[in-house]
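call fold(seq) -> tokens
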Amino acid sequence: MRAVVASRNKHKIEQVARVLVGLDLVPLDEVAPDLELDEPHDSFEANALAKARVACQATGLPAIADDSGLEVDALGGAPGVFSARYAGSRAGDDDNNRKLVAALAGVAEEDRTCRYRCAAVLVMPDGTEHTAAGVCEGRVVLEGRGDLGFGYDPHVIPIGDTRTMGEIPLDEKLAFSHRGMAFRQLGQFLRRDAFILDPRDSTA
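ret:
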């Protein structure tokens, strides 16, 4: 099945492609370069669906999207759905991380518990919609380490590890991360309904 990925984040597109092997994924800019993707809602799932619906309508293709972010308990769940624009609408990763570190400067390490949350969705041209979710628990460290990720990865250590998400190679990270978990769930549906070829199937 050919599907458009409703994202302009190259890191996300790479991760989706690593998980949904066997699906013909088309970057949004190849088929709808001028399409605006808004995230106006207060939940990850609603934002993901909003992006997938508009991409599906604009291209006539099945559309895959996700919305994800970091929830920090000491900050009341912030930055949450505002993770990508925590420091402002034009903010980059460095800006967002600086704001996060400043907000947690007086918080003890054991109280900097957090989680990455992801909602992954598929919207079909006939209006059918499928959703999946993933969560990765961790804690925030004030000194960033590693350049193998993006977003808040250099400042998040997943439970059970001593490395930050920025120090963990992508294939290893996808085995337990919020995005890997969510898109594996979506992939199970796609394989069950024969929309996606399983590379382990020698007849494929």
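The chain has a mean pLDDT of 93.
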